[in-house]
Amino acid sequence: MTTLPNDISAVIEADRAHVWHHLLQHKALETSDPRIIVKGDGMRVWDAGGREYLDAVSGGVWTVNVGYGRTSIADAVRDQLVELNYFAGSAGSIPAAKFAQKLISKMPGLARVYFANSGSEANEKVFKMVRQISAQHYGGGKSKILFRERDYHGTTLGTLAACGQPQRAAHYGPFPDGFVEVPHCLEYRAQWEGQDYGRRAADAIEEVILREGPDTVGLLCLEPVTAGGGVIVPPAGYWDRVQEICKKYNVLLHIDEVVCGMGRTGEWFGYQNFGIKPDFVTMAKGVASGYAAIACTVTTNAVFEKFKTAEDPLGYFRDISTFGGCTAGPAAALENLRIIEEEGLLENTRAMGARLMGNLRDLMARHSVIGDVRGCGLFAGAELVTDRTTKAPLDEATCARIVAETAARGVMIGVTNRSLPGFNNTLCLSPALIATCADIDAITDAMDGALSEVCG
């Protein structure tokens, strides 16, 4: 048991009275205490009651990739803040330049890094860049942005306009014009008959481009592996065909790596599993493992050069992210990247990811409520159904009970919730890249017990 602060009761009451939590219906806190996490170490966290949990979701939202308690990252941030804590991004800094160079060395074909402080903001930057390219190079044409059903790109109005999860966007419209949805590619929930499902799902994107008019479409924005929409790994052939389509119609390709980036899938970035050559890559979450706020919009030189002009006084990218100039982010990110490299965490992710998928398949063999398991590296999902033949999804409330019962066994897992009407039925796993065989087995053992308890 961890040592708790002496005034923890006062902290709980202060939280209840003054903190507005993310993604939480506060009506529930009228009769129960808010969850307060007070300590983290490695793969474990402790709550205000002293209860220990194995964290299988890396901070709840796929963020703490190298685990808790990394003193070397904290020291790097402290040392940098004393030297220089901040200067606006119109000037450079030593950690930003060093991290940009190191990052680009992991991303062949890409060249420039624009710093911001959240994944939503990083994606907004891409949308603004595309709109400015449209205005300056296509006379306002090619301004439409395509996004995929079930994908998620952020919480701002612009990124919610590109949200493939209707319940996330509900009540926040009207949204900006020019955002168009393309079909998802989850073969388990097949929308078309026949073989070669990956190519067929990609062909659906071409159909949307032709319907909208190729001269109106400037960008296709996709997650390499859909995260909160159900942990969807695109089928074979999908990404090859997507790239053919983008090249054919001169559509820029934006890969949103906010969840998958920095080792989560067993490669530095999720797109590197599929041979993708993107024009934009965005990232946040695991870039500094949550030790400091940082997000990056990374582009090719071809994109960057479109904003270099001496003739147009408005031709440069007229954007600022105030805290993109904070030096804590790149300082933490540099040390985070060093840890991943020197501790061999990409290799560990691939090995432990294989063990996790094997364990999930064993669970599927024992529990008929599991209809499908899927994943890539230490990023996995188990879709729950009431009947494997009909694939009728298990209801959201029962899925939530399974998550709660797993937590009662000392393991925190995630679940899709209030995102996809009728399909919030996928358990989500994203343990830190430092996970051991014992950690992976403990996660799936707790799930086994919870599934037996709730579903029989």
Automatic annotation (TrEMBL):
The keyword Metal-binding does not apply. Its cofactor is pyridoxal 5'-phosphate. Transmembrane segments: none annotated. Keywords: Aminotransferase, Pyridoxal phosphate, Pyruvate, Transferase. PROSITE patterns: AA_TRANSFER_CLASS_3 (PS00600). It comes from the Bacteria. Pfam families: Aminotran_3. Its EC number is 2.6.1.77. One of its GO terms (molecular function) is taurine-pyruvate aminotransferase activity. Belongs to the class-III pyridoxal-phosphate-dependent aminotransferase family. This is Taurine--pyruvate aminotransferase.
